[in-house]
Amino acid sequence: MTEREWLIALNMIPEIRPRTVTRLLEAFGSTEGIFKAPEEHLRQVEGITPKLAAVLIAYGRREAAVAEETRRAEAAGCAMVTRLDEEFPETLRNIPDPPPVLYVKGNWVPEDAVAVAIVGSRRASLYGQQTAQRLGYELASRGVTVVSGFARGIDAAAHRGALQAHGRTLAVWGSGLDELYPPEHGELADQIVQHGALISEYPMGSLPIAYHFPQRNRLISGLSLGVVVVEAAHRSGALITVDCALEQGREVFAVPGNIDALTSQGTHHLLKQGARLVTSVDDILEELRLEPIRSSGTIEREAQPHGDWSEEEQQLLSKIRRDAPLDIETLAGATGLPPSRCIASLLHLELKHAVKQLPGQRFVRT
């Protein structure tokens, strides 16, 4: 096998972490050398137990496994990009523990090096989802790629905001790219493939196991210039992404929230610790020195013209009046749309200046 194929084989051993891969490569000089090394030499590498040494020796005789993995990836429409390939993102190549292999469905392009991550709670409030979606929209409108973790709540809202702006977004999974999770995000996944990429370091067939998600968070921050936390409880997984960002030398931002909300505890703690306060997208762009920086109002005026409505937007507009504000629950009941879809469409209508949000999250026509 080639060095590249040996690296794919190494990545298929779930017990071996990326940092251990780096130590093995430093010890033996090549991936082929790792698999052909004597057990006593393998056990001298930090993190290699007798059990792992035995696994490595046994796996070195399973060359057909790499061919089967390649076949499964191709069948799912995924490319495999290794550390040895020129296409491997430079932003990830230089983090302390780069993945040996990335599975990519869609396209990673050089412009994606200018990226910002938006992360936060899966149990996000309406305010949090609207904020994440708006930031995703405005960043993507200015040519910044939006990175997130494809989870429910803040992550999904950030991806949708970028897609509504016809911008680019990258979704980093905690499972194999043939194992959709969460299962209700199939349509979102298809849209991201058309306007960015789904990315995973896990082999095909890997299930969304709990420990995968903290590990993949370093890729979310690694692909980005900075990480924006919109909502996070005191022990939120989003704060793991922040730790990764700090280790990698990335900027950290936080959006303030309701002082009584559990999902504000983490973000407010970050602000006390020195995270950059975000009240608009300009706070992010200025800190990262991304130019040209235009006002939010300019972006809103450049949105799609009035009359260019989606079917869901037309449904909402048919129910919203100028003189009788309606809340999300009422609009969902009147249109038959799920509240999450109402939120997404209402944000887009706000950006088009078709509706206006009043206190209490009620909406009227403009």
Structure description:
It is a single chain. The protein is of the alpha/beta class and 366 residues long. It has helices spanning 3-11, 18-28, 31-36, 39-42, 50-59, 63-75, 90-93, 126-141, 154-164, 186-194, 212-222, 238-248, 265-272, 281-288, 296-301, 311-319, 328-335, 339-351, and strands spanning 79-82, 101-106, 115-119, 145-148, 169-172, 196-200, 226-229, 251-254, 276-277, 326-327, 355-358, 362-365. The strands form two sheets. A nine-stranded mixed β-sheet has the order 1-2-6-5-4-3-7-8-9, sandwiched between helices. Strands 10-12-11 form a three-stranded antiparallel β-sheet. Strand 7, helix 12 (238-248) and strand 8 (251-254) form a beta-alpha-beta unit. The radius of gyration is 22 Å and the shape is elongated. Residues 292-307 have low confidence and may be disordered.
Give a short overview.
The chain is of the alpha/beta class. The chain has helices spanning 3-11, 18-28, 31-36, 39-42, 50-59, 63-75, 90-93, 126-141, 154-164, 186-194, 212-222, 238-248, 265-272, 281-288, 296-301, 311-319, 328-335, 339-351, and strands at residues 79-82, 101-106, 115-119, 145-148, 169-172, 196-200, 226-229, 251-254, 276-277, 326-327, 355-358, 362-365.
